[in-house]
Amino acid sequence: MGLKIAGQIEKVNGKELSYREFVERYMEKNQPVVLTGLMDDWRACKDWVTLNGQPNLQFFTTHFGKSRVQVADCGGREFTDQKRVELSVSEFVDQWREDSVPEGRNGSTHVVRGKPLLYLKDWHFVKEYPEYIAYTTPLFFCDDWLNLYLDNYRMHKDPDIYSGNNEISCSDYRFVYMGAKGTWTPLHADVFRSYSWSANVCGKKRWFFLSPSHSHLVFDRNKKSCVYNIFDDVDETKFPSFNKVIWLECIQEQNEIIFVPSGWYHQVHNLEDTISINHNWFNGYNLFWVWDLLLRDYNEAKEYIEDIKDICDDFEGLCQRNLAANTGMNFYDFLIFLAHMSLANLVHLCKVFRGTENCVWSLSPMAQQLTFNLTSIQKIALKMKATEELTRNYRFHLDFRDTLDDPEFGKLCSVLGRTYEQIHKQQRFDCQTKEGSINAIRDLNIIGTCTSQDCTNPEDLVKFIDHAIVYLRGIYGEENV
Ligand SMILES: O=C(O)CCC(=O)C(=O)O
Questions:
Q1: CATH no. for residue 248?
Q2: What is the bridge-based pairing of β-strands 274-281 and 115-116?
Q3: Residue among 201, 278, 286, 289 whose CB has most ligand 1 atoms within 8 A, to mutate
Q4: pTM metric for this prediction
């Protein structure tokens, strides 16, 4: 039986959309959209594409040929994903060229002359070639705490997990994908239940989407395994609701960027030889998706080893290590991340406050954004506080005052500040700030007056944010924060 398709994803000219409109219509509502007109000046669109619109494979061999990359075998499955091998870019390109002799193609079976179709995925191109500015992230997708944080910190520090290949694979979430016509990505929801955006530098993709409220339909009775390929002859006894699924479809053309919201399951097919760039990211609008996933994966990890609980010296530690290995971070990693991000947001809030003493504070979109961010972090910390494991086990410690002196934190703060200045410049507030970034929070002595100057658990973070907001209200008046 064929798939039921209910509709298409909306396409909007990105040049005619304001940041606020993007937030209100898509990011806040968690709705997909395709944006056009945002890639005009990308170097990738010139260097990586031939005059007749094909991937410029020679350019890749010449300039990036020695890079080692992960390549998926589109015909082979390994657990929930495609089998992967590591190749150099040159080797990958050679194989692509060999396979692209027309008579070799065998329909949509993901195999060419008995050999699997190869799809280069998750290439950390920006990390590897920081000097080569292939593109600029469109403003709509710049409020990206995940990649800003990873540019300065590691998400997870356990040397057992964070080594070798893993070190590279966790370094950031900015990727290049390259694959011939027929390559594809199986059904999945994104890592950390982040948002993603994906831009077609050349080629064409066909996307199938399922909203989070219907995602249970692609799972088995135990809600453990998900359909792998929606075009397979899906076993009805195993996936009894699969035939009820109604999909949203999107044909994404060259130079179009798709916004994939949190928790939407999707399967993707390259209809032509395609190169795309994609990022995963999260911010104050979708943090709760990340926490929901972590909690769910934690409960699963715990259930899986429940039978060794009584003979294990550090059962909770083992659960957290397994969670980090499977999901990419654990509770403590996430809490440290939240503590850094709250302090960075507060640094800027103090800075804006200092610079706007004589203005009507509530008019500042920047202050509204920072206050919103702090409030959404606080909501997650409150949820974390309700998690027994986190109240019983204090496994990390962050000193807010020391963090202000950390040069990596200084870099994180400057990039975050620049990002919000860029985002809000359309609605520029009249009073400009003159302060250095971190001085304002020091001068205001917010940390010194807080009962919890250290963060060791979610409750400390909740109190710290409460204190900061009450303190600023005390100085500048209730209506202003
Ligand atoms: O382009 C693809 O093959 C997959 C991309 C994807 O799944 C994503 O960006 O989330």
A1: 2.60.120.650
A2: unpaired
A3: 278
A4: 0.94
